[in-house]
Amino acid sequence: MLRLLTPHYRVGRVWELTPERLQQWGLHTLLLDVDCTLTRYSQGEALPEAVAWIEQLRLSGFGLCLVSNGMGQRIRGFAERLELPCVAKAMKPLPWGVRQALRKLQAEPSQTAIVGDQLFADVIAGRLAGIRSILVDPIHPEEEPWYTRMKRLPERFLLARHEAYMGDTLIRQRSDIHTG
Q1: Domain ranges, residue 142
Q2: Residue 33 CB neighbours (<10 A)
Q3: C-alpha to C-alpha distance for 124 and 117, rounded to whole angstroms
Q4: In Å, what is the CA distance from 167 to each residue of 138, 153, 171, 173?
Q5: What CATH number did the domain enclosing 52 receive?
Q6: Measured between alpha carbons, how far is residue 24 from residues 30, 33, 64, 139 in Å?
Q7: pTM of the full predicted structure?
Q8: Distance separating alpha carbons of residues 46 and 165, to the nearest angstrom
Q9: CB–CB of 80/122 below 8 Å?
Q10: Suppose 125 and one of 32, 85, 92, 110 were both cysteines; which one would form an S-S bond, judging by CB atoms 3.0 to 4.6 Å apart?
Q11: Rounded mean pLDDT of the chain?
């Protein structure tokens, strides 16, 4: 159970993930959460840093797809503005939306990671779908709905426990990103 809730990597923001670092990890495809990962909760536009990062990955040849539990019309509009494919109403933590994105991109699971801000949605969905997960710190979590904010306390507890249990493995991977 603890493994299901353990991200493979952690970073502060998505734009800290350089194409070089991702390639060192053997990743060629990223499935991206939207709310609190690329933008503030329920916004229609990605943050400028996220847009620049996506363009950098696209130019480096990465496969990209948005995978969100958000409603179809909003997420499809978001994806169109970024010129990315998407899976809306993905029902994370269930793996079906992740698997749909893998099929859409014809991606190899061993070379794919999901990037998101929630242990109980993104990390579990990635684990159940057999891909790696990269947990990011949420962007303005205070703007999230109450049912998401309720999950943040147990997330913090579990992350602290993971770091204590694993020594500095997660911390090293996290600082590795900043120095590499």
Answers
A1: 3-179
A2: 25
A3: 11
A4: 23, 21, 8, 11
A5: 3.40.50.1000
A6: 14, 22, 17, 26
A7: 0.84
A8: 35
A9: no
A10: 92
A11: 86
